[in-house]
Amino acid sequence: MSRPALRRGLRAVAWAALALAVAALLALALAVQRAPRWPGPAEVSAADIARARDFLRRNDPRRQTPGPLRTLVASEREANLVLHQLARRLVPGASAQLVLEAGSAHLQASLPLPHSPIAAWLNIAATLRETPGLPALEDVTVGRLPVPAWVAARLLPRLAERLNATPEGSLALDMVQRVRLKPARLDVVYEWGDDGLQRLLGTVLPPAEQARLTAYAQALTGAIQAHAAAGGGAGLSLARLLPPLFTLASQRSVGGGDAVAENRAALLTLALQSTGRRLSDLVPALRAAPYPRRVTVTLAGRDDFPQHLLISAVLALEGGGPLANAIGVYKETADLRDGSGFSFNDIAADRAGTRLGLLAQRDPRALQARLARGVAESDFMPDVADLPEFLSEREFLATYGGVDAPPYRRMQAEIERRLDALPLLRSP
């Protein structure tokens, strides 16, 4: 090849490389945006929790008619509550929603880009078309960048491969036979075999998580035995149980361990103990796991505060603060109807737990180190002895006007002020 021809060839390659680089940068600029287009619901309401409870009862496979094929029916709102929480669990800060129509659904999702020095989001819009099996994906747009049809056609199989690599995804792909898309309604036809419940429980708590929880049950058993050997009574302060379990969490997080998973296991173990439940209630395969002797876990001399705090902490760590907050408000408003009344000190314990759970996720190792050193109850639970409790529905509405009224919000603000005074739980 002559030298001029070689130069022309190299120039053509250089221009082609430059064109590809410019095209890639243009595609990136079109795909990535500075803000989420679909931020999702600002908060989960107490009414949403009531709706979720009724949804779970309505679709409990153990209570449905016998037969391998079952149909789960969800309204658009119910489907979006589940989808949004799932998106947040898979990608912290993400949101997703569906708009359901006859034979199709419009999926909208906003995903933050991790490790980006600036705010950067992938805003995804897609259409799902009903088929005899799982829906087909089409008309995909990422930001302002349309995705070619042939690329969209290959996305679902790739997504299915990745889902199949996880216990939850594998179970879903095995069980779900068809999805029917209707106006404001979703029907999921699934196969419920004889081993369905066992597989579901095993998915919620896979073997690695079962082993982790067993280790914390052993640590809790040791702490309670030490309490008994020292002549302790039937009650044991939560402040005495947090250090040994979070010492274990800190030890297990060394060397690249999953500190958030360790914190979750520690809090869940304590929550089960506070409610008198055992691990085998969650997973029958753990019948042989240690079961600490029954001892009442207390906080401010009460056995209900640890339950409020710990359950809210687990929910906040797993599903985000809004979910835990809504469940706390839902329980108190339900108590108005059931007769035990509305208690603001219970709300304070819920909020303390929510902050603890969010801290366990946001700064997991720092929390482990702090709790392992030892804590007093006043480090994570404010004084609430003066807060109103056991209010009847008439008293609550007459004094506070409901959960959205200004007097109620002033009480909420007072609770947050007291929590901010606690160094461990102070808002960042």
Structure write-up:
With 428 residues, this protein is of the alpha+beta class. The protein folds into 2 domains: 46-200, no CATH class; 205-420, no CATH class. Helices cover 55% and strands 15% of the residues. The protein has 16 helices and 11 strands. It has helices at residues 3-31, 46-58, 76-90, 149-164, 167-175, 196-204, 207-229, 238-253, 259-275, 279-282, 304-319, 321-338, 344-362, 364-372, 393-400, 406-420; strands at 32-33, 69-75, 95-101, 104-112, 121-129, 136-142, 145-146, 176-182, 185-191, 235-237, 296-298. Strands 1, 3, 4, 5, 6 and 7 form a 6-stranded antiparallel sheet that branches. The protein has a 3-stranded antiparallel sheet with strand order 2-9-8. Strand 8 (176-182) and strand 9 form a beta hairpin. Helix 7 packs across helix 8 (238-253). The mean pLDDT is 79.
